């Protein structure tokens, strides 16, 4: 019988086992060869896409921050000069508001009465409502048979006695109070998925 050569499960090298492997236990960065981070997160490899320098990112790039501050200052100075030329400040008074009243559409939106939203049953409530309606139809059929003089079995009689419970369940109360019915998707559409 031939001897089986040892194969490392970590580096797939032959001649040694995983306990004797030369690879470090923690994966190291391919750029700086230290453990604890990957090359994508290496602090030495970080570079700014704005100034193309290493050691920092766009978020803390001095050149980019200076450019943004300069742009912000120029925007502020433009807004100050436009206010000064109009003779208006940022404060709205009755005279300035009267000279530029809100548009008619805004008034219409503010004063228009809100249309009441029709509340609708959820899918689960719709399913439950359909089940209860089916039971009520069965009870109606049993009552018709009882009116004709037939005798009902014990379970059928118990079902007839529970009619008021079915009519007073929460879903049926919602339907009586005006909740809208929910459209359930057809079973053929559900099965097609």
From TrEMBL:
GO terms for molecular function: double-stranded DNA binding; RNA binding; zinc ion binding. It comes from Cladocopium goreaui. It comes from the Eukaryota. Residues 82-103 have a biased composition (Polar residues). InterPro entries: ZCCHC3, Znf_CCHC, Znf_CCHC_sf. Residues 7-23, 28-44, 47-63 form the CCHC-type domain. Residues 72-130 are annotated as: Disordered. This is CCHC-type domain-containing protein. Residues 72-81 have a biased composition (Basic and acidic residues). One of its GO terms (biological process) is activation of innate immune response.
């Amino acid at each position: 019988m031939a001897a089986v050569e040892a194969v490392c499960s970590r580096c797939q090298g032959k001649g040694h086992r995983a306990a004797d492997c030369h690879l470090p236990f923690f994966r190291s960065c391919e750029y700086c060869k230290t453990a604890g981070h990957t090359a994508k997160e290496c602090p030495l490899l970080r570079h700014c896409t704005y100034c193309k320098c290493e050691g920092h990112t766009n978020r803390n790039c001095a050149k980019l921050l200076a450019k943004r501050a300069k742009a912000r200052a120029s925007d502020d100075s433009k807004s100050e000069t436009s206010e000064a030329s109009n003779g208006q400040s940022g404060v709205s008074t009755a005279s300035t508001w009267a000279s530029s009243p809100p548009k008619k559409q805004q008034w219409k939106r503010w004063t228009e009465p809100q249309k009441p939203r029709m509340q609708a049953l959820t899918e689960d409530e719709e399913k439950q409502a359909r089940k209860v309606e089916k039971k009520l139809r069965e009870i109606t059929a049993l009552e018709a048979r009882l009116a004709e003089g037939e005798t009902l079995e014990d379970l059928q009689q118990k079902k007839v006695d529970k009619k008021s419970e079915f009519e007073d369940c929460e879903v049926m109360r919602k339907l009586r109070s005006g909740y809208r019915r929910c459209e359930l998707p057809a079973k053929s559409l559900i099965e097609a998925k």
